[in-house]
Amino acid sequence: MQVDWPLEQARAHHPDLPAPDDLARFWADTLDEEPVEVRTEPVDNGLVGVDSHDVTFTGHGGAPVRAWLHLPAAPLVSGRLPGVVQLQGYNGGRGLAHEHVFWATAGFAHLVVDTRGQGSGWTTGATADSGPSGPSQPGFLTRGIEAPETYYYRRAYADACRAVEVLRGHPAVDARRVVAAGASQGGALALAVAALVPDAVAAVLCDVPFLCDVRRAAAIAQSDPYLELVRYLAAHRDRVEQAFATLAYFDGAVLARLATAPALFSVAMMDQVCPPTTVFAAYNAYAGPKDIEVYEFNGHEGGEAFQRSRQLEWLATTLAPAL
Questions:
Q1: Can you give the pLDDT at residue 102?
Q2: Does residue 54 have an active-site annotation?
Q3: Among the options 4, 110, 184, 207, which is catalytic?
Q4: What are the pLDDT digits (tens) for 150-195?
Q5: Is 271 part of the annotated catalytic residue set?
Q6: Which residue, 22, 125, 226, 246, has fewest beta-carbon neighbours within 10 Å?
């Protein structure tokens, strides 16, 4: 079922999206905060091969953000570990202590980060969000959309950048080999990290990313979360330009121009949630070394296990120069 342009046409989609004049200042001001404080406690996850720790760190505005840190119980190599910061898809949270341990079983230090206010959908979360918001649609996409300073994703993007700082600062981790990873909303967060703190990540795993080429996505997406924005704009007909002016500060196809770390993307040509052209818009704008895996007959699940295998191979090569 074709949901967007044919593959070759989609591959060439590279819209000239205007960046806000004060984009750099806005994000510099957002990320200019007090040092991150971290509390870590070991927990029993019931597993043999992975040691887990309950992590709380100070996110944007001083709010506490929760995460799990998973470490291989018997590291495959001596010395400090490479790390993966896993950022969650829409309305997912860090889950239970045994739930997300793939990267730890592959020999990485694995930080599984809550997205504030979320975690009541496909997996549970433990982090609140008390940020400001005017009238909004149910969900997160239009929360605080009246201005970039109040927009929900300002807080979420800043938290993701701080999570990378947390993992890089752990004594078991090689700060030169930390990766930002995520799918859908997690892909948007990983892309934001690559753009906003480019020197902090060695690589980026960005699968079927959300929040890219957002105006086009709102026009053609066939599923939530983008339909939250459509319903909001249908009700607030006088706020269309204001909403897209806010979203320009968070659009992955705008921010990707600032990213320099090697990146591996994925796109699914039957994706009704994050249309393929919007993924290619971010990929084509991405300024660093990059590659993309195309799943011609998949929807928003993307490559799943096939993509994990590809990521393991790609990281083995990409992170090797830092050894």
A1: 98
A2: no
A3: 184
A4: 999 999 999 999 999 999 999 999 999 999 999 999 999 999 999 9
A5: yes
A6: 22
